[in-house]
Specification:
Rossmann fold, six-stranded parallel β-sheet, globular, 13 strands, seven-stranded parallel β-sheet, alpha/beta
């Protein structure tokens, strides 16, 4: 079709930071751009100073609404939020998109009303996981936003989040379940070797990836490391990601007597290479939606050990394509990692099953086709050809 006749889509995230919802947003933006859409990406604010780097890498505009000021008071941020809302409204009037998709509750509450006021015909809100400390008042407003029809659909990334949304009062008919999806990466073997050399040639490498926040519970990862080191004294434990708990986690590694076996890597742009280099990927979270890190690890060919929380069970089938353990159960977490380190054949079996699972049900193409059917009235939903039907 003629590019000039293609519709525009505006994707709105809450904050520019390194996280699962942000990766999904940017993945979708790249897919829509490659499929002829005119794409504009918008964030309420740039929390981590990433706009310049992201814009340099992106073939579409990335807009910072400046709707929040780090360290600002309540009144200052209320004014910033109103100003950001106005900027978004003007952008939508100018672009006249066929659809707007918003990522996480905060973006939903700001951008869906703006899209409704601007007359955008398709207004898709998304729910990627429980937000710790989210106000009950805001939760009720979010439910009203969906039930009123201001959002034309609420997309959740797992059946469990659908159940939780219904329990919060959202009408079931307004919810669609679309799992996250990833592109299977092409990993450079030399890059993998370089990472192994960086973190310890020949030693078992156990990796966790995610922001260093309470939800991810990396404390249990470190505590499990103590048990694993009893059986694999040369093992290296790497934490990729940053966050407010970093200093506390570094102190915990000291307290446990394992600082020499732990690597705090900070924010990395090569997490796909890190995953391909690791022997095991661990997710020790207390709560999750449908974690991108597990999909990415399975696509990269690394076996996963994860806590049985949130939507994890919709992806990882215990003993089939990964291992599941109860949340906060340090001995079980350590035992599962040791099982994979001790049994390379078992590790290979889970890797093959994990990659097959991603290719069959959790690719970026499958995910984006389903979102496209919600955002573009010209797309026949029945033509998407996905296993995960929109419901």
């Amino acid at each position: 079709m003629n590019a000039a006749r293609q519709p525009a889509v505006v994707l709105v995230g809450s904050q520019m930071s390194v996280g699962g919802a942000q990766r999904v947003l940017l993945d979708q933006a790249n897919w829509f751009q490659a499929h002829g859409w005119r794409v504009v990406v918008v964030f309420l604010y740039d929390r981590d100073g990433l706009q310049a780097a992201w814009q340099q890498a992106a073939p579409f505009p990335i807009v910072n609404l400046l709707a929040h000021r780090k360290g600002g008071g309540k009144m200052e941020n209320a004014v910033a939020l109103l100003a950001g809302f106005g900027r978004l409204l003007r952008l939508l009037w100018r672009e006249r998109p066929a659809g707007v998709e918003t990522f996480t509750h905060h973006a939903n509450l700001v951008a869906i009303p703006a899209a409704w006021l601007a007359g955008v015909p398709r207004r898709v809100a998304t729910h990627h996981g429980v937000i710790q400390g989210f106000s009950p008042v805001l939760e009720r407003l979010h439910t009203l936003l969906v039930n009123s029809g201001m959002a034309t659909r609420l997309v959740v990334v797992s059946p469990l989040l659908r159940e939780q949304s219904v329990q919060a009062g959202v009408q079931p008919g307004r919810i669609a379940v679309i799992p996250n999806g990833v592109a299977v990466p092409r990993i450079n073997p030399q890059a993998v070797q370089a990472v192994r050399h960086e973190l310890g040639d020949g030693d078992p490498l156990v990796l966790t990836v995610g922001r260093l926040v309470e939800q991810k519970s990396q404390t249990f990862f470190l505590q499990a490391a103590v048990h694993i080191l009893e059986r694999f004294p040369g093992a290296v434990f790497a934490l990729a990601g940053d966050g407010p708990l970093r200093a506390g986690l570094e102190a915990e590694a000291q307290r446990l007597g394992i600082p020499g076996r732990v690597r705090f890597l900070g924010t990395r742009q090569d997490t796909d290479v890190l995953m391909a280099a690791a022997d095991v990927l661990v997710l020790s979270s207390r709560s999750e939606g449908l974690p991108m890190v597990l999909l990415e690890s399975m696509a990269a060919g690394t076996p996963v050990v994860a806590t049985r929380v949130g939507g994890v069970g919709a992806l990882v089938k215990d003993g089939e394509n990964g291992l599941l353990v109860p949340a906060e159960d340090v001995p079980a977490l350590a035992a599962a990692v040791c099982r994979l380190l001790e049994q390379p054949q078992e590790r290979r079996r889970l890797v093959e099953a994990g990659r097959r699972c991603v290719l069959e049900s959790f690719t970026r193409e499958q995910m984006c086709l389903q979102y496209e059917s919600l955002l573009d009235p010209r797309v026949d939903r029945k033509s998407s050809g996905n296993k995960h039907a929109i419901s």
